[in-house]
Write a structure and sequence with these properties.
Layout lengths: L1 E5 L2 E5 L6 E6 L3 H20 L2 H17 L1 H12 L3 H27 L2 E3 L7 E9 L2 E5 L7 H12 L3 E5 L5 H13 L7 E3 L4 H9 L4 E5 L2 H14 L3 E4 L4 E5 L5 H13 L9 E7 H16 L19 H16 L3 E4 L15 E4 L6 H4 L6 E7 L2 H9 L3 E2 L1 E5 L3 H8 L6 E4 L16 E2 L2 E2 L4 H6 L2 E9 L14 H14 L4 H17 L2
Parallel strand pairs: 6-7, 6-9, 7-8, 9-10, 11-12, 11-17, 12-15, 14-15, 17-18
Antiparallel strand pairs: 1-2, 2-3, 4-5, 5-21, 10-20, 13-14, 16-19
Length: 518
């Protein structure tokens, strides 16, 4: 939560208590440019270091995070309004896991590899992965530590420098990340933070960064992609979601209900992968609805002072208004509020009660637009096919979940869902797994973060080829003659024949071409 105290500073407040917790200075365009230039100088030395050396430094980063885990969790709870347990399990734990994964796996992912040729045996080729240079990373306020550290670790272990613009709603977390990197021995200018709103993000992209990683809303993502396109630099987009949960008639209802409540209201629903739509088969709909309403009523909401709270605050007033507006729109158009549905007064912070809606139609914003808050509509369906059709009917494609005791059927339905990740009898937690890349389809973005794909997203592929024969003349060099044409025409027919015998014979016939150079 922020208060803009002047044109050149941002005051950060605890969203749960409204207490001031710190202040940062807004960066101007010249400071952004200077940060990029200093990062570029630092990257030259860092990029020339051995991969082994970079991995050793990332190991130190991991150990600093382990040592400071409780401090980090307290900080995140204060600046985001989430509970300390959610800060620890949802941000600190997966971030340490990400660092540990790269410590163990980066060498095998990034090492130079020999690429054998099927035909061009006169050369020896290698695939080398090289860093971009300076990566601009623009990160959000809902998971400011995890979603900053993840792409930054990928960029750094790959040999890049990073200039990070954290959300203006959680600026102190950006400074905390920089402090942790510095403590672990990352060179001072290799990871830098610039503060401010979208204007500072625009200045970062307009600067001389070589790649952009953006996590945020679809509307801002379009602007970022457009600006990156103007400069012809690559960009990774992690955008929003309207994630469906499909509960079939043979679903494990108790597990599904518990996961639905947690998946919809964890971090006050401020997760791109949280459950935002539930499609439940009509034969179990009443029972399922009763279970999730009962479990939602049991949730404890408020200021997390002694671990007696389940649901924390919304992070900022702007998002609170979006959520309240969607619920009011749905109510006015005929939806029923089964539980919640209102701003929680009396706590002094930004709280919205965990809310379950029924009777929602496509005319309501909550049915189609990303809510990003503790609200979930429940829809009745008559078949699995109807559930899949409705789940697919969205501009987003981040995650979905299917709940059924029949794994084979669930996997068949999963293949029909156009989402970057589909979970069977689970949701949300697998999205933080370090072993697999994270990203969505359609308006949920493109590119991957974390996992092997996230690491490879931070490098360019260079082909290095070495001639093995050092012949004075190659058969495809000048001068061109009809004889050369006829020989190569015959070569194509033989070498690419379906018959293995003909292919081998064709390759053997080509040997004189290279030995004679004609």
């Amino acid at each position: 939560m922020i208060t803009q105290s002047s044109s050149d500073s941002i005051v950060s407040r605890n969203p749960a208590t409204n207490e001031v917790i710190g202040e940062v200075v807004v960066s101007d365009e010249s400071q952004v440019h200077d940060a990029i230039e200093r990062a570029r100088v630092a990257q030259r030395e860092w990029g020339s270091c051995s991969l082994k050396s970079r991995i050793a430094t990332i190991r130190k980063v991991k150990n600093v995070m382990i040592e400071r885990r409780d401090e980090i969790a307290r900080h995140l709870s204060n600046e985001t309004g989430k509970t300390r347990l959610e800060a620890l399990t949802g941000e600190v734990f997966p971030t340490v896991d990400c660092a540990d994964y790269y410590v163990r796996k980066a060498r095998s992912i990034l090492e130079t590899r020999r690429v054998p040729h099927r035909l061009l045996k006169t050369t020896r080729s290698y695939r080398e992965l090289v860093p971009y240079g300076v990566v601009g990373i623009i990160t959000p306020w809902n998971y400011p530590f995890f979603l900053t550290m993840g792409p930054s670790l990928s960029a750094l272990v790959a040999g890049n420098a990073v200039v990070n613009k954290p959300s203006e709603h959680t600026p102190l977390t950006g400074d905390l990340v920089a402090e942790i990197f510095l403590q672990a021995g990352i060179p001072k200018d290799l990871f830098q933070v610039v503060h401010g709103d979208g204007a500072v993000g625009a200045a970062l992209i307009r600067g001389e960064v070589d790649k952009v990683s953006f996590t945020g809303s679809v509307s801002t993502g379009r602007k970022v992609a457009s600006m990156a396109g103007e400069r012809l630099i690559p960009v990774t987009m992690e955008l929003g979601g309207k994630d469906p949960m499909i509960v079939l008639k043979d679903a494990p209802l108790d597990r599904a209900a518990s996961c639905a409540v947690w998946g919809a209201f964890c971090n006050s629903g401020q997760i791109c992968a949280s459950i935002e739509r539930i499609y439940v088969h009509e034969s179990v709909a009443d029972s399922f609805l009763e279970k999730i309403v009962t479990k939602t009523r049991e949730l404890r909401q408020g200021v997390d002072s002694n671990f007696s709270v389940d649901v924390g605050a919304m992070q900022n007033e702007q998002q609170l208004k979006v959520v309240a507006g969607q619920v009011e729109d749905a109510r006015e158009k005929g939806a029923s509020v089964e539980v919640g549905g209102e701003v929680v007064e009396g706590e002094g912070g930004l709280f919205f009660a965990p809310t379950i809606l029924t009777g929602v139609t496509d005319s309501m914003a909550v049915a189609r637009e990303e809510t990003f808050g503790p609200v979930v509509p429940v829809f009745r369906v008559t078949s699995a096919e109807e559930a899949v059709r409705l789940a697919r009917d969205t501009e987003f494609g981040l995650t979905a979940s299917i709940w059924s005791e029949d794994d084979r059927k669930a996997r068949r339905l999963a293949r029909q869902l156009d989402f970057g990740a589909v979970y069977i009898n689970d949701m949300l937690a697998p999205s933080s797994a370090s072993e697999i890349g994270w990203g969505g389809f359609k308006n949920s973005g493109f590119g991957k973060s974390r996992g092997p794909e996230g690491l490879l997203d931070m490098v360019r592929t260079k082909h290095v080829s070495v001639d093995r024969l050092r012949m004075e003349q190659m058969p495809y060099w000048y001068p061109y003659t009809e004889t050369k044409y006829q020989r190569f025409s015959s070569l194509i027919k033989d070498v690419f024949a379906d018959s293995l015998l003909k292919r081998v014979w064709g390759i053997l016939k080509s040997v004189p071409l290279f030995l004679k150079g004609a």
